[in-house]
Design a protein that fits this description.
This protein has helices spanning 23-42, 45-61, 63-74, 78-103, 135-148, 162-174, 189-196, 209-219, 244-256, 276-288, 309-323, 374-381, 397-404, 441-444, and strands spanning 3-7, 14-19, 106-111, 114-122, 125-129, 152-156, 182-184, 202-206, 225-229, 234-238, 266-272, 327-330, 345-348, 365-371, 389-393, 411-414, 433-434, 447-455. It is α/β, with parallel strands linked by helices. α8 (209-219) links the parallel β8 and β9. Bound molecules: nicotinamide-adenine-dinucleotide.
């Protein structure tokens, strides 16, 4: 077996090496999962629910060490690691409460001796290839409902969150999920690619558009259920009747939370010209209050950049914006090493010729563009190949709803941003992907609705 080296992105230091998978072990483990899945699916739902309930209790019991593991390997500020784990508990509670009704057989017609029913059978063995930025959230959105509804899961955590992936497996196994029913596969892109070669009944991916496109190409002829949750370039429009201070505080948090490394980070801001200057001043002042530093410190707000290559993406967007006439108000450069650091960066007077208004930054970098009308704002919000989330700030509910109805995004926000709810479906338009997680649809997506036509003799 090969080894995967895990480094702390805040210091560059080697944390540990863990045993990694290879093509042969991926193939063997997927056969074991195939053999084990029918027994898991045959258990009464209450037994699978009991396992996930014990998993939840274990997270509560180990919350501090689990948060520390995630912070050490990803550079996520420790308070945000705690927030993610606490937020996961609400998602688990939602899935536990809804799985029974969502997967129960439904009688949809019953007349004249003819009965029609929909049965939700598990897909079978599903692959879950996951991202590092919210490893508990994006993994849990898949493996928790998939396990509850009777599937075996081949789980490939990101190589940048492998210790968290192993912790998830340890807790699920201790909670009673058999080793062959939840199977962690450790490694980078090659292990993910090896997983695509296996016989699976569903592939659920969270990550970048570039990798998602490769996966779609590889899986295309396979006729396997495919879900791809990809990146975004999420816009918000601040109308002239909004309070610039309140909007700036909310949007600065939406842009910089998790060091800007959220799929639903605010990535573009449009502000009506009447309040542009006031908004920009309040935004910069808010960001100046964010403390950058040791991710293990309780008061740190800006942590490390998890993947070193992202520093080059941020540098390139800064150089491009400056060359095209944007005004740099804050940051614009890397922080001192060792480790991967980038100063929170704010540009005003940006436009759509600039990369930072078109391509995902995935870091603490934001552009604020002046607009003169609602029509212009909607046009710019829709001028993107992505469509994950979008928002509008205004006290006028009717105006917000009319604007958001015109925006092509999977989730839309009135006077809020960077928000995910277990009760609502999470999906995207365009290059933000296909399929969905969360909500009751995000439970049923791990089942195959089987149609029963039953005529009494
Ligand atoms: P990534 O695409 O680099 O990696 C994602 C996963 O794919 C990793 O586990 C990686 O090892 C694996 N992988 C890489 N090459 C592969 C291949 N050829 N075949 C199979 N698997 C392969 O993405 P990332 O850096 O981990 O995550 C950041 C991206 O994820 C951002 O674009 C972000 O917006 C997106 N994201 C989206 C959502 C969402 O819900 N839409 C949530 C979180 C993150």
């Amino acid at each position: 077996m090969t080894q995967l080296a895990i480094h702390n992105p805040a210091t560059g230091a080697l944390i540990t090496e863990v045993a990694a998978d290879d093509a042969a072990s991926v193939a063997a483990k997927s056969l074991q999962a195939r053999a084990a899945q029918p027994r898991w699916a045959a258990l009464p739902l209450a037994e699978r629910q009991a396992c996930i309930t014990r998993f939840r209790a274990a997270i509560v019991a180990e919350l501090e060490p689990l948060a520390a593991i995630m912070t050490r390997e990803t550079g996520k500020p420790i308070q945000m690691s705690r927030n993610e784990l606490n937020g996961l508990l609400g998602r688990i509670d939602f899935f536990l409460a809804e799985v029974s009704a969502s997967t129960a057989t439904q009688t949809v017609f019953n007349e004249g001796g003819m009965t029609e029913q929909i049965e939700h059978t598990p897909l079978g063995v599903v692959a879950n290839i996951s991202a590092w930025n919210y490893p508990w959230f994006v993994g849990g959105n898949v493996f928790i409902p998939a396990l509850l509804s009777g599937n075996a899961v081949l789980y490939k955590p990101s190589e940048y969150a492998a210790m968290t992936g192993l912790a998830i497996a340890r807790l699920l196994h201790a909670a009673g999920v058999p080793q062959d029913v939840f199977v962690p596969l450790i490694g980078g892109g090659a292990v993910g690619a090896a997983l695509l070669e296996q016989k699976v009944d569903g592939l659920f991916f969270t990550g970048s558009y570039a990798t998602g496109a490769k996966i779609a190409q590889a899986m295309g002829p396979r006729m396997v259920k495919l879900q791809l949750e990809l990146g975004g370039k999420d816009p918000t429009y601040v109308c002239e009747d909004a309070n610039p201070q309140t909007a700036a505080e909310s949007l600065a948090d939406g842009a910089m939370y998790n060091t800007g490394q959220s799929c639903c980070s605010v990535e573009r801001i449009y502000v009506h010209e009447k309040i542009y200057d006031a908004f920009v001043a309040a935004f910069v002042a808010t960001v100046q209050g964010f403390k950058l530093g040791d991710p293990m410190a309780n008061d740190t707000y800006i942590g490390a950049i998890t993947r070193a290559p992202q520093l080059d993406v941020l540098d390139a967007q800064v150089v491009d914006a400056q060359a095209k006439g944007a005004t740099l108000l804050l940051g614009g450069k890397r922080g001192p090493g060792p480790g991967n650091w980038y100063e929170p960066t704010v540009f005003s007077h940006v436009n759509h010729d600039m990369e930072l208004m078109r391509e995902e930054s995935f870091g603490p970098l934001i552009g604020i563009q002046k607009v003169s009308s609602d029509t212009e704002a909607v046009k710019l919000m829709n001028d993107t190949r992505y469509g994950l989330t979008a928002g509008v700030f205004t006290p006028d509910e009717a105006r917000a709803k009319a604007l958001l109805a015109q925006v092509k995004a999977g989730s839309v926000y009135w006077n809020c941003c960077d928000r995910v709810s277990p009760r609502l479906p999470w999906s995207g338009y365009g290059d933000s992907g296909v399929g969905l997680t969360l909500s009751t649809y995000g439970i049923q997506t791990f089942t195959r609705p089987k149609a029963w036509h039953l005529r009494k003799p």
